[in-house]
Structure formats: structure tokens, C-alpha cells
């Protein structure tokens, strides 16, 4: 159904002869304008004229891509469904208003006809013409509006039916857009969570590294302190040994003094004893 409605919309803007462009543009992806021209068997300028007419009504969107070799831009086009259906709704509203006005006018006013010439006049004009046809001199007859009013009412009913279909399509398109928005939001949220987790992991890694560093520093300090302690102990030992040495030296000195003294006394006795001989 939506395909037929899109065709009706496009025909309304670019005319019946350009109807085939409707199906070509009714695509999920944007379509290359050169491909459109080729398929429509018209020139690129004629194709662009059609596209600009549709674009002026906001019924199509375009994207452009740069040709890296030639350096120029190629445009790609597609129907904007929601805009198109809303446009058609506007058209149907207008038609409904016109028909309602016609019916009201037929019901309120009297019309006169010349049945021979098949010409119709409003009451004030018929009065001005003295209810006589300018062309053939025939006397006007009062127009029976009932047939016309019935036709207009039938027309109104069919427009109303189409309007319902268009409203369904509009709702479908809005639902689609809403779904896309929700999907996008979800994606964005997931992406944000992922980034947050990644950042937290990085922060934790940094903290762990710093902890390790601090721990390493502590052990190094401990080792240094231990070494210092050992050095001090060695120094103390050396001092102790030096003291011991001193004491020993003193003892030795004392001993040797004593020995000298005793040997001297021994000599004396020996001398004395020899003198006796
Ligand atoms: Zn006439």
C-alpha cells in the first residue's frame, strides 16, 4: 500500500510522466542520480530537475560523495517516507476542505443552467442575464444539485478512506524512527559503560603499579637499614677488638717490664756470686 501512496505523492509533484522515479527512490539506501537517469532513460539534468522539485517539498533527502579520481561530488537520493506521507495528508486535508466548501455552496446557493449549451450560472449572474442564455436565447432552468452533491460526498468518503491509510503509514514511520532512536540510545549507553569500565581498569592498573613501587621502595629501605645495622655492628666489633688489642698490648708491656726487672736482679746476683769466687 505504501508503495502506491508514494507513487501518488510523487506524481502529485512531478507529474504522471515521471511516475517511474517514485519506485526507484522508494529505497532504504540513497540512489546514485546517474543510475536514476540511466534507468529513467532521461538526461542527468532532467533527472535533477525532478529531484529538485521533490526536494523543494522536502520529500527526498540526499547525500553526496566525492569522486576521488575526478574530484567532483555525486549525489545520492531517496524518499523521506514520513515527510512524504505527511505531505500527502496535507494534500488530502486540502481536498477535503475544497469538497466540503463545494457541497456547502451547492446546498446554500441556487444554480441555473442552459440545457442546450450545457452552461451553468450562479444565481446573481443568472439574474443579471434575465435568466436567458446569451448564446442561444433559451430560458435557464434551475439546476438539480442533488446528483452533484452525492458525487462530491462519494469523493469525500474515498478521500477519508485514503486518509486513514496515510495515517497508519505515518504512525508506522514514527514508530520506526522511535525504534531507531531507542536503539541508538542503547548503543550510546553501552559505549559509555564500556569507556567507563576501560577507564576504571586503567586507573586500577596505575594504582596497582604505584602500590608495587611503594612496596619495592619499602623493601629497598629495609635492606639499606639492615646493611647499615650490619655496618654498625662490624664497627662495634672492630672497636671492641681494638680495645682488646690495647688491653693485650698493655698486658704484654707490663709482662715484659716485669721480665726485664727480674732479669736485672738475676744479673746482680750473678755478679755478686762471681765476686765471691
Ligand atoms: Zn444556451
User: What is the assembly state of the chains in this entry?
Assistant: single chain
- CATH top-level class of the domain at 1-79: Mainly Alpha
Q: Uncertain runs with pLDDT below 50, 5 residues or more?
A: none
Helix content: over 70%
Q: Could you report the average pLDDT, rounded to the nearest whole number?
A: 92
List ligands, each type once. zinc ion
Q: How many angstroms separate the termini? A: 165 Å
SS elements, strand count: 6
Kindly report the name of the CATH homologous superfamily of the domain at 1-79: Winged helix-like DNA-binding domain superfamily/Winged helix DNA-binding domain
Largest sheet: 3 strands, antiparallel
Shape: rod-shaped
How would you write the strand order of the largest sheet? 1-3-2
CATH topology of the domain at 1-79: Arc Repressor Mutant, subunit A
Rounded to an integer in angstroms, the radius of gyration calculated over CA atoms is: 57 Å
What percent of residues are in strands? Answer: 5-15%
- Sketch the topology as an H/E string, one letter per element: HHEHHEEHEEHEH
Question: Structural class of the secondary structure composition?
Answer: mainly alpha
